[in-house]
Amino acid sequence: MDLRPNRVKEKLAAGQTVCCVSGLTDPEDIDRFGPAGFDAVWLEGEHGPVDFGDVGDLTRACDLWGMTSIMRINQNDQALIYRTMDRGVQGIVVPHLNTKAEADNVVAGGKFSPIGERGLFTSRQGYGVEAYFDRANDHTILIVLIEDIVAVNNLDEILTVDHIDVFFVAPSDLASSMGLIGQLDHPDVQSTWQSALRKIAASGRVAGTLTNNDNVAGFVEMGVRFVMTNAGSWIDSGAAAYKRAAGLD
After folding, report:
1. What is the model's pLDDT at position 54?
2. Distance, C-alpha 218 to centroid of its chain
3. Closest to 90 (Cα-Cα) out of 61, 128, 115, 53
4. What is the DSSP letter of 53?
């Protein structure tokens, strides 16, 4: 058995843009979406229903389609980070990352020695893989969420931390932290959001953010290389269009 390639890791290393989808909560949903050709599936363990007992089957479905499995956890805890990876995910998203020390902690929990302090257990991704512990660090993705104004103010220091693959600016919580809850179109939110993304890209690191069909091209042009969208928005817009076509609105 060889180590499964991490599609996101490979594409980012090649300077390419990565497309990720969230909102898929069942292996059957992932199988149905597989032919779409996206690079990654964002499994929701902070706000959504994903639990440890679900992770094995969810990640197996991602593996079948060659999509990188990425799971957002609910806190920056080393044991939680590597337990999630042990269950089979190829990438971790850590929320509310506000300082350089917190970024260092993500690396410590997400990487085996000599880079970090990840507990030695063969992940589901490592079963039967020769020299797994020597190779796993090169095939795991670490993503941190820049979603508080304090993180934006500390961004220069945070960006100095090696082995973080994506610095993802999350607009909704950012707006809330600015006292502008729900006002993503507010000029101050837009300016802060876009300035943070540009700073990340200009530093040579990978910027990521939440996008939709209408704005994704603009973010890619800005230099964002990890674009994520929620399948729920497609369902909502498709349902609304269908009702309009049927004369039900």
Report:
1. 94
2. 19
3. 61
4. H
Q: What is the pLDDT of residue 249?
A: 77
Token representation of residue 2: 């060889």
In the three-class reduction of DSSP (H, G, I as helix; E, B as strand; rest coil), residue 143 is classed as strand
Q: In degrees to the nearest 10, what's the CA dihedral of 54, 55, 59, 60?
A: -50
- DSSP string for residues in 31-43: HHHGGG--SEEEE
Spans in the chain with pLDDT lower than 50: none
Which class is 7-145+206-245 in CATH?
Answer: alpha beta
Kindly state the tokens that stand for 76.
């920056």
Rounded-to-integer distance, Cα 162 and Cα 171, Å: 24
H-helix or E-strand containing 167? strand 166-169
pLDDT in tens, 13-33: 999 999 999 999 999 999 999
C-alpha 208, offset from chain centre: 8
Residues 6+ apart with CB under 8 A from 72: 42, 43, 44, 45, 46, 47, 92, 93, 94, 95, 145
How confident is the model at residue 1, as a pLDDT? 83
* Rounded alpha-carbon distances, angstroms, from residue 172 to 21, 37, 97, 145, 234: 17, 27, 15, 11, 19
* Nearest by Cα to 125 from 62, 45, 219, 188: 62
Would you state the pLDDT for residue 79? 96
Domains in the chain: boundaries: 7-145+206-245
Rounded CA separation 43/62 (Å)? 10
| pTM score of the predicted model | 0.96
